[in-house]
Amino acid sequence: MVDVLSWDKSIDEDVKTSDDKKVGKVRAVTTDFIQIQKGTLDKKYYFVPKHYIQGYDGNHIWLALTEDEVKQFESEKELPLSSFDNAQYRERKSVVEKQYPQFSSAIPTYSSKGPAQNQVGMSWDKVIGEEVKSADDKDLGKVESIAADYIEVKEGTVNKKHYYIPKSIVEEFDGKKLHVSLTKDEIKNGYERDSPPLPTEFESNEYKDISRRREAKYPQYRELIPLMAKEPGLEMKGQESGEILKIPWEEVIHKHVRTSDNVDIGDVDKVGNEFIVVREGVVSIHLYYIPKQYINHYDGSSLWVNVPSGLVSAKFERKTEPTQQEIDMLVKEAENNKADVAR
Fold this sequence. Notes:
By secondary structure, the chain is α+β, with helices and mostly antiparallel strands. The chain folds into three domains: 5-120, Roll (SH3 type barrels), CATH 2.30.30.240; 123-225, Photosynthetic Reaction Center, subunit H, domain 2 (Photosynthetic Reaction Center, Chain H, domain 2, Alpha-Beta Complex); 234-342, Photosynthetic Reaction Center, Chain H, domain 2, CATH 3.90.50.10. The protein has helices spanning 67-70, 87-99, 184-191, 205-217, 309-316, 324-342, and strands at residues 5-6, 14-16, 22-29, 33-38, 44-49, 53-56, 60-63, 106-107, 122-123, 131-133, 139-146, 150-155, 161-166, 170-173, 177-180, 224-225, 234-237, 244-247, 256-258, 264-271, 275-280, 286-291, 295-298, 302-305. Strands 5-4-3-2-7-6 form a six-stranded mixed sheet, with no helix packed on it. It has a six-stranded mixed sheet with strand order 13-12-11-10-15-14, covered by helices on one side. Strands 22-21-20-19-24-23 form a six-stranded mixed sheet. The protein is globular, with a radius of gyration of 22 Å.
């Protein structure tokens, strides 16, 4: 396990970019930057804003920037904040500090081969060769290559198909597979082709709208892939035994979900930061985004939610992930219900 590295201990550590290039060693740390020195005779200095750091893997500090992107920070002296402190960077800073509250005093741990516990996201180049799943849980193939705006996915070995999927459609990485937000038919109809798209194709208003929505939800998606949440454990009382059970969240994937009136409403498909996604049906699919506060029992094979079956669709069914405002309203309602029961 990688030890936590405090900022003052990062001096002389090697630094690598997201495309696996060495850019030098840390020479100094300030409130807003790390200073990187490259070379000994023909020296170059980069003042990289701290929040572009992905983490430390025990051997290197990794940046969420490519080698070419680092060049914009080349300077003999510390850069003025106004040179980089734009809306995009402020959004990134907010996300990093929310996901890693100790960021001001220590560098997040990081694994160059897979997601680490405190990692903010997965670098795109690390998922080459990984499997890709559609929103309707069908295999799309494996990641063949990564470009600035899209990933190339190859399906099959004899009758090969190539999908050039925009990064803005990639939802998350669960440690083994990439998940996209469209069904397999939608991917085939929209992105199957024999040759890569031209850069001008990503300048359409439709693509810009999709990118803006994705950026609003996950500001650093161009640099990092969101990681599926993995929390320390799920503690709740078993319905049959009455004992406190603790299981990792990933163990509830594919478990049955039952309502307060004992109706099976499907299986857990994904676990997010604040909710579980329950999938019901095979041909006609229904997706329920249920805040974790509604879970009140686990018996080893099923999760139980504190809501009757007749209200599940009206409360939780969505075609896309709910907004933060919708989640907050549902969470507040669940907490009020628990408070009423306690009285």
